[in-house]
Design goal:
about 80 residues; Rhinovirus 14, subunit 4; about 40% helix; binds zinc ion
């Protein structure tokens, strides 16, 4: 059965697998060697710089709705 499967596979339709394909993070510049059919590729964020793995909040999240609401409330209390 296995022999039949190997014979039935078409020769030139499978993509080339690169064992040492480079995946680069465009945020922090980390390079990972992950087997892939694409030799050089990039990702926007990786495990080294994603907030959920680092535990640090992103800069743009710090000045969010909650923070603006708290500032407004603090300013309102001062006026009274
Ligand atoms: Zn990264």
């Amino acid at each position: 059965m296995i022999l039949y499967t190997l014979v039935a596979m078409k020769a030139a339709i499978h993509p080339v697998m690169h064992a040492d394909a480079k995946t680069k993070c465009s945020s922090c510049g980390a390079v990972y060697l992950i087997p892939s059919t694409i030799k050089d590729q990039s990702v926007e964020i990786c495990r080294a710089c994603h907030p959920i793995y680092t535990g640090k909040q992103q800069k743009d999240l710090k000045g969010g709705r909650v923070e603006r609401f708290r500032k407004r409330m603090a300013a309102g209390k001062k006026e009274k």
